[in-house]
Amino acid sequence: MIVDAKDLILGRMATNVAKKALLGESIDIVNCEKAIIVGSKKNIFEKYKIKANRGGPFHGPFLPKMPDRFVRRIIRGMLPYKQYKGREAFKRVMCHISVPNQFKDKKAEKIKDADISRIKTLRYTTVGDVCKFLNGKEW
C-alpha cells in the first residue's frame, strides 16, 4: 500500500498506518515533508525545541531531522516496537521524501480520516518546516 502524506494530518495518518502495519500490511509513505501538524507554529516549534535541547550531544533523546525519519519515528511511537510483533510491523513501514521513481507510475492512496478538511482552524505547519527549524539538511 502506498500512502500520499500530502495534506494529511500527521497523527491521524500515523495511527492508521501503525494499525495496518500491525495487521501485516506493507506500507510506503511518500511526500512525508508535506504532512501537516495541527497547532500554532509558535507552539509546535517551541515543543520540538524543548525536546531537541533536552539531551546533550552524547545523551538522548535524539530527534530525527529529516522528514522521512521524523514521520517514521512518530509511527514507531504508536507501535509496541520493543516486542517482536512491533519490530516486525515497524520494518513494514517505509517513509520517503517526495515520490521515488519506483512509485511514480503507481497510484497512491489518501486516508480520508486524516485529510486537512477535518481541521477547523488555519493554524498548522508542515513536517518539512519543523525539520528545517531543527536544523535539518535541505532535501
Q: What can you see in these coordinates?
A:
The protein is an alpha/beta fold and 139 residues long. The protein has one domain (2-133): Ribosomal protein L13 (Ribosomal Protein L13p, Chain: A, Alpha-Beta Complex), CATH 3.90.1180. It has 5 helices and 5 strands; from the N terminus they run E-H-E-E-H-H-H-E-E-H. It has helices at 10-22, 41-54, 67-76, 84-91, 127-133; strands at 2-4, 27-30, 36-38, 93-95, 124-126. Strands 1-2-4 form a 3-stranded parallel beta sheet. A two-stranded antiparallel ribbon has the order 3-5. It is globular and about 40 Å long. The chain starts with a strand and ends in a 6-residue tail after the last helix. 24% of the residues are buried.
Count of discrete domains: 1
Helix tally equals 5
- Biggest sheet strand order reads 1-2-4
CATH superfamily: Ribosomal protein L13
Order of helices and strands: EHEEHHHEEH
Please write out the topology.
Layout: E1 2-4, H1 10-22, E2 27-30, E3 36-38, H2 41-54, H3 67-76, H4 84-91, E4 93-95, E5 124-126, H5 127-133
Parallel strand pairs: 1-2, 2-4
Antiparallel strand pairs: 3-5
Highlighted features:
3-stranded parallel β-sheet; 5 strands; single chain; alpha/beta; 139 residues; 5 helices; globular; two-stranded antiparallel ribbon
What is the structure about, briefly put?
Helix content is 37%, strand content 12%. By secondary structure, the chain is α/β, with parallel strands linked by helices. It has a three-stranded parallel sheet. Strands 3-5 form a two-stranded antiparallel ribbon.
